[in-house]
Amino acid sequence: MIFTAASIWAGFSTDASSMIVARIAQGIGGAMVLPTTLSLVNATFQGKERGIAFAVWGSTIGGMVAVGPVLGGWLATDFDWRWAFNINAPLGLIIIAGLLIFATESKQAQREGKIDFVGAGISVVMFSTLVFGLIEGRAYGWWTVNEGSNFAIGDFKWPATGISVIPVSLAIFVLSTVLFILWERSREKAQKNVILDLRLFSISSFRNGSIAAGIISMGEFGLLFAIPLWLQNVQGLSAISSGLVLLWLAGGAFLASGIGGALSGKLSATNAVRIGVLLELIAVAGIAFVASTAGSWQGIAPFLALYGVGIGLATAQLTGVIMVDVPMEKAGQASGSQSTVRQIGSALGIAVLGTVLFTSTQASIETRIVNLESLSVVDAPARQMLAETIAKPVADSAGAALESIPSFLTSQGVPQLIAYDVKLAAADGFTDGMKATGWAAAFFLLLGLASTYNLGTKAKEVATVKKPRAKAKAKSEAKTKAE
Length: 483
Prior knowledge:
Keywords: Membrane, Transmembrane, Transmembrane helix, Transport. It holds the Pfam family MFS_1. This protein is mainly alpha-helical. It is built from 17 helices and two strands.
């Protein structure tokens, strides 16, 4: 209800302040919904049915990552941007009605006392300073202030020289993390409500599964930041068309629902996770290998579909592994915690892989322009100056500046043919940056695959699969003896 109401609020916003507040409310509502759905699945289904339910849940999450932007873009382009928010009103009502009719209540026992608002506030500071520090480090400077950067909050402006805001932000993250742990432990000892029961991390499947989920999330969704930019700015597709290309990923994710259901009962959840991550790794490496400026989106489409299958399998079954040993009364906190870990992993992945994209793009463009054959008659210092003039705006704009290169250069007296050569070199440089991002994503997925070997094979997983077979075998033996 909060998310639906906030969506309507955003759709009727008339200024930026109102929109920002509405989006914050949307975030609060969405953060309440996602772990709750997982808790409902965990509480409602058992055995093989739980594996199938997790497969459907994970495939839906993975598929909607691609479908959502396409739907929102279509509504904003062909109707009005407000409908990108207002569409959530009828959808929200349908979901609420479905919950009232079909969902089973799974409320857990609560301790007496107030909600841990202090812990919640500390966690907001903790995660926001971490994500801000990693995402904005390139813009404001990792240690000293970048020339021309202007960090400000209201009337407060960060000094233009000296230490950057980034190390301060990361220091606040470290301090708030320590404070959060101490605060949660003190409340737990006092038998008060906590935001996160730290004792959950004493459960090996939850602890190791959460670590694996965080690492895998860094590689899973970071590349999805770069692909649409490459499709639009290098391949020349519109925003809607690039979104439609990503539907190959959605198709693969939905296909994984059927595959995951078929594998449930035949393969342990841990091995299903490994297969899913391996498919993602192959797909991401394939995208990095085949992508080229002269190529087309058709070259990466099959790999996007394979990518979707991997996401669908890994997301669903890893969730089951994380939750398998968690007591039912702790399912809500565990669901929220693993969801937060994945969101943080995705944010960190976008931050790290975004940095790889921008730095690799800028370096490659400079190298390619300096070595352009059509510029061989120009002296080296002038070529270097031209390369830097082109490379930084293209990297900073994530490729959007590519289109304006010929007109800019011809206005400076550069011959048209040379101007287009420079644009092509810059486009090749951006493609190099996207490929480097793909290889970096593959590296994180490889680390994630390695981390799954700490999960082992869960006894509960095997029991839920083999018990029905054991019963059937016993009945068959009894029947034989009777005859």
